[in-house]
Amino acid sequence: MSKIEDIASYTALIARAMQPIYDKISRIENSVEHFKFYINAIHDLEYRRLFQIESSKPENAGKLWQYGYKVYSQNDEDGMIAEIFKRIGITTKTFIEIGVGNGIECNTAKLLVEGWSGLWFEGQPDNGKGTIEPHFSKRFSIKEVFVTVENINSLLSEASGWGEVDVCSIDVDYNTYWLWKALTVIKPRVVIIEYNALWPPPISLVVPYDHKAVWDITNYYSASLEAMTQMATGKGYSLVGCDLTGTNAFYVRDDLVGDKFLQPYTAEKHYMPVNYNFNHSSGHPSRIAPYLNVVASDGVKL
Asked: Computed from CA positions of residues 122, 123, 128, 133, in that sequence, does the dihedral angle turn out positive or negative?
């Protein structure tokens, strides 16, 4: 028997000996996937139970988060955005979002799919979000740039020619407060902004500005809801709600808010504490791509 035949024989022998191990690994992997499925299902059931508990509390009656639901957003922001525009109306169907990650889970993806136009800004190198842009290139673009206090107005100057911007979402973790404070080139009708729910009202704190800073995966970031709301008041905005997880705050421009939302428009009234366990874990992975619009009179509209 030649050396080549010897090697082939030994290889086949090793493969046969290893096959039971491969089979066991495959069974373990399948078991892990099933276990993850059941854990996610239990998590979702717990989410619904806790949602019902929070909704039944008298102090939570009429709060915006009760209208929440998730399509592409991290939590229930998609539904809250829809409810806000149901009350104040839509003008230009335009959005800006600063800090979108991979684009699969953000506050304006649903609006994009629904026909809105806008810009996304993300400082991290492309990690999949680039596959979204070609589908919507006529009315949407992604700018891969690190947004700072020093460049935010020049970067967003493009949007100043849109007329009114309907919604702007800012979530860059560390410097979120400072970016909105510096923004002057546009005055969106609605602003969605991440706050640090670690600090309840009336505590008013913000991290010092650092143009190079990024989130270090700790609870040291952004600003308390009280600090954010004080700044927002100075810019002409009213706090109309926070999402159930204590992640994002929703502000509407003062000339639009009227009595359309739960008053008073204060941090104390609308604050939600850290509830990061209130989120959705199951369901199919997200894919952001065009749908066809079905209308009653014409059938399918492209």
From this structure: positive
Residue ranges in 96-224 assigned as alpha helix (H): 109-113, 152-155, 176-182
- Does residue 102 contact residue 141 with C-beta atoms inside 8 Å? no
Cis peptide before 285 (omega within 30 of 0): no
Q: How many CB atoms lie within 10 A of CB 82?
A: 16
Which of 264, 262, 228 is CA-nearest to residue 246? 228
Q: Which residues contact 254 (CB under 8 A, 6 or more apart)?
A: 236, 237, 238
| Locus of tokens 């059941």 | 38
First to last CA, the chain: 68
Nearest 5 degrees, angle CA 142-CA 144-CA 145?
130
Residues 129-180 have pLDDT tens digits of: 667 877 888 899 899 899 999 999 999 998 878 889 999 999 999 999 999 9
Joined tokens for residue 260: 């359309």
pLDDT at 6 over 70: no
Q: Contact 236/252 with Cβ under 8 angstroms? A: no
d(CA 80, CA 191): 12
Judged by DSSP in three states, 300 sits in strand
Distance of alpha carbon 235 from alpha carbon 201, whole angstroms: 20
- Name the burial class of residue 94, with classes exposed (0-12), middle (13-18) and buried (19+) by CB atoms within 10 angstroms of its CB: buried
Q: Give the confidence band of 126 by pLDDT, cuts at 50, 70, 90.
A: low
DSSP assignment letter at 65: G
Task: Assign 240 to helix, strand or coil.
Answer: strand
Q: Using one digit for the tens of pLDDT, what is the confidence trace for 199-248?
A: 999 999 999 999 988 888 899 999 999 999 999 999 999 999 999 999 99
Cα–Cα distance, 298 to 87 (Å, whole number): 28
Tokens 């007329």 sit at which residue? 163
Residues 6+ apart with CB under 8 A from 112: 95, 118, 132, 136, 140, 288
